[in-house]
Amino acid sequence: MQKSIRSKGGFTLVELLVVIGIIALLISILMPALRRVRDQANRINCMSNMHSLMQALIMYTSENKLWLPPSNWGGNYFNGAGDAKGTAGWLYDDPMWGSWTMDGREPDWSHLQGGGPSNYNGGQLYRYLKNREVYKCPLHTTRETVGMTERFTSYLMNGSACDFNNKMYKISKFKVMDILFWETGEVNAGAVAFNDGCSFPTEWLSARHGGLGMKNGRITGNGGASVACIDGHAEWFAFKEYERELLRDGGQAGDGRLYISPTLPRGGR
């Protein structure tokens, strides 16, 4: 009987195929775990960004008699006739950059009107942060909308905190668990969320962390996104949890965390 021929120290074809099969099996077992670790790391980075934004905001309020920074709802805050430039908001400083400003071009600071780095660096919180990366989720690498502020940020301020009209309140007017920022959804029912520095709660959460698309105006899937609260902490909100929170009344008499206006009925819901 003829014996199989193999070189000294080598492998037969069968042995090589067995080794490859074992490696493939190990990869298939490890990949979901590695993906979960990567997703968790992105969540932590995103929540860290939100925490940094809130720390900057708290520093701002401590230097401004507890007043929150303007929200950039529709651009700079104007306090009346003769206020030609207005007051910079938390995100940017540009009196000509209103909510009507849309630009679908990719970033090229040399040709933009109302969207250059000087406007961004003039935001009230940037003066404390000095770091642009804090404004973007690590997964937010491409633009999903023509909204101007998506160039700069993954996060927007809660519009009910300014009565959806650039009104300012002292931070002491809110409850500690009220949500002031969230990682905003890119598009909800055709509306562009990133048209200024502030958002309606109904413009939802981003789908970057496990979203499976929109259905009936809601993000589906088991994912969620990061939010930041008045007391400075950041937390993770699942899509289902956010949807339940949208149904709650807020304000001084309510228990809602999204509709948080101190003066509007039901917190602005």
Describe the structure.
The protein is α+β, with helices and mostly antiparallel strands. It has one domain (14-268). It contains four helices and nine strands. It has helices at 13-63, 117-121, 126-129, 239-246; strands spanning 155-158, 179-183, 187-188, 191-192, 198-199, 214-215, 218-219, 224-229, 234-238. The protein has a five-stranded mixed beta sheet with strand order 5-1-2-8-9. A hairpin with a 4-residue loop joins strand 8 and strand 9 (234-238). The protein is elongated.
Structural class based on helices, strands and sheet pairing: alpha+beta
CA radius of gyration: 24 Å
For the largest beta sheet, what order do the strands appear in spatially?
5-1-2-8-9
Helix content: 25-40%
Quick synopsis:
The protein is an alpha+beta fold. It has four helices and nine strands. A five-stranded mixed beta sheet has the order 5-1-2-8-9.
